[in-house]
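Fold it.
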Amino acid sequence: MLGIISYLSFLIATFPVSLVWTSVSPKLPLKQLQINVKAVSGSIWKGNALIASRGIEGVLAWDVSVPGLFTGKLPVKLSIKSNIGSFQTNARFALNGAELTDTIGNINLAGLNPFLRRDRLTLAGDVKIENLSLAFYDGDILTANGRFTWSGGEVKYPAGRDIHGGQFPPMVGLISQKANVTRLTIRDNQSSVDLLDGELDAFGMGTLRVKRRLLDLANEPWPKNSSESDVVFKVKRKIL
């Protein structure tokens, strides 16, 4: 009996992910999402997949903590290494949601320009994600904290029929949560005024406010009798 149990445990622990993927992949909307999984290797508990999507190619790796399954959640270490950057996090999945902790990453924005060409938008510089944590259960964001930085660089954007742009300084963004409201603030390192701030309330309504400070950095015209902290543009939309 002990030998049979040991053998079955070995089969489960080393079960090839390729066999599971063959039966699962036809049921996934990969074509609609324009995602091409070129290859998978390893087991269902620890392995990797070579993924490509519209010019971006990378390796997704996972490592499932089997003892953690007895907690009622699926703990997985995830990492992605691609031609535009890297990302890694500790994830815990449940039937009603998921959470991410110790999330770090780095994205080269220039690698996204092929996707943005239709919108006539061009980005540069690197975005670094630091210690991001997020918990999303039953359709609500329960916790959200983190910090990210942008190295700065040249940005070009459409303004009517013309293309405007310029060199922008480095920026810092903070994600926080208080009283069931998730907040986002972004400011450059040359001012104490936020150039963007946004929030997502408990009802899934998102609000984004653009301050005059951003127009100043872009050298866009605006009445001089206003303050750089004045809101010049506001968007409110249902997100969740």
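The chain is about 10% helix and 55% strand.
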